[in-house]
Design brief:
Two copies of one chain form a homodimer.
Chain A: H1 3-10, E1 17-27, E2 32-38, E3 48-49, E4 52-54, H2 61-73, E5 81-86, E6 97-105, E7 122-126, H3 137-154, E8 165-166, H4 168-179, H5 185-194, E9 198-204, E10 214-218, H6 220-228
Parallel strand pairs in A: 1-6
Antiparallel strand pairs in A: 1-2, 1-4, 2-3, 2-7, 5-6, 8-10, 9-10
Chain A binds a DNA duplex through α5.
Chain lengths: 235, 235
DNA sequence: GCAAAAGTGTTTGATCTACACCCATGA
DNA sequence: TCATGGGTGTAGATCAAACACTTTTGC
């Protein structure tokens, strides 16, 4: 069969729409937050949704995710990890749209969603505040949460959610919020420090009404060199 | 903006092809195997490829994966897990095709790919035997391998690769092949038995020229009841 | 008896858990 | 000086690695 004929026969298949949706996690010091937008177009006009849109026909999916997240929220330089693809026939009321979900952890202090210039309003919401969402976005969100919980224990991605410099208690609070557990303070500290990927700084917190805590930095270089030697971050 | 107008504006986006590709792992007692087919159509006619095809416009992606795997290899009742979606613009020479890869572990003894009736030849190949593959299938395969290696340590999916009844040495060989390591026999046994998900049978191997090994079965029920109590399978 | 693999026990050191205790700061 | 969290030490339990040893089968 010639290429031409084949192409002809296949044309009936080339009618899918492809979209991306981004689950962006943040942490405000107490609870996990998700970046949502208010939809500015049908369907689900005005409903809360994950930032997402249709991919252009000449655009890589990964690049589309980055572009679309930027277009809708102003966020830049965000590392997006692919989560899963959702392809039920009836998931989009306006046609056959397959969506690929991405997720990301960002440092909330670096991004304040108060954009005067963007048409769409983006804002942080805690899990508890989120109820109805457009499309199957609630399902995407749950899937992202599961992925986050299992990834956060095996890779040092939690630090993405914190400011550059942070205290050990901040990390502990973060892990407790994400994994929904409690850790013993002494043991948590010993464990995380024993991995050797935190660089202690000669700085402390300011203006707290108790003994100020030492600040630490995640030591990316050291983590990479340890990784090459077979070291695995865990818990 | 009305729904009609919106639909009109969007039509330019609805020109994607969606395909699925399946990475099916088997184990022959010594090394990990992958089920491949010889392509019967352009492009890459005659080349080795993962079983895969275009999804129909009215078909769920998950269901398409099951159907296509069956059409191409005769395999049935296979649990397919979604792996990742590959969406580079130039990954398919005949148009914009986004593919979603699935993967699965099956018991090789239950499936002998010697189908007289199927047009396409499916066969097992070990990793070492596989070189050139159609499209970006080599990349999909590598991704599946990574996923397999990390999943196999956290969930009791390795048993899918073994016959119903197996010896402890068989499991150990399997784990060593998949993870590409060596385990101490005594310690491996203690660990896997201590999890309490293997049911010892009153049977042994036959026709071996050494002391015959006891046979075991994976105890699915017990695994599920332990899981509910927070038990985690590991290593 | 011998080869070959099945199967078990022990020692040692590392790691985890629980919990008690001391320290530095602001008010 | 008191309240509040920061920060540390230790005993006991649990777990993991290394390795030697015994058992059962076919030939």
């Amino acid at each position: 069969m010639s290429l031409e004929l084949e192409r002809e026969r296949l044309s009936a298949f080339f009618q899918f729409g492809q979209s991306v949706d981004c689950v962006v996690f943040g942490f405000d010091g107490v609870s996990l937050q998700i970046l949502v937008i208010e939809r500015g177009a049908e369907p689900f006009y005005g409903a809360e949704a994950l930032p997402g849109d249709l991919v252009r026909i000449d655009e890589d999916i990964d690049k589309a995710a980055t572009r679309i997240l930027h277009d809708l929220t102003g966020l830049d330089n965000v590392f997006l990890d692919q989560l899963k693809t959702f392809g039920r026939v009836d998931r989009h009321p306006m046609g056959r749209v397959v969506t690929t979900a991405f997720y990301s952890l960002i440092n909330q202090t670096k991004y304040n969603p108060r954009p005067a210039s963007w048409a769409v309003k983006a804002r942080w919401k805690s899990l508890a505040e989120l109820h109805e969402m457009a499309f199957d976005h609630r399902e995407l969100l749950e899937t992202a949460l599961d992925a986050l919980q299992s990834q956060v224990r095996q890779q040092p991605i939690g630090f993405e959610l914190l400011p550059e410099e942070f205290t050990l208690t901040q990390i502990q609070n973060l892990y407790e919020a994400v994994l929904n557990t409690q850790f013993d303070k002494a043991n948590f500290r010993k464990k995380i420090l024993s991995m050797g990927v935190l660089k202690p700084l000669d700085k402390t917190e300011k203006a707290v009404r108790h003994r100020p805590a030492r600040l630490y930095q995640f030591d990316t270089q050291r983590y990479h060199s340890l990784s090459k030697q077979g070291f695995l971050f865990e818990l």
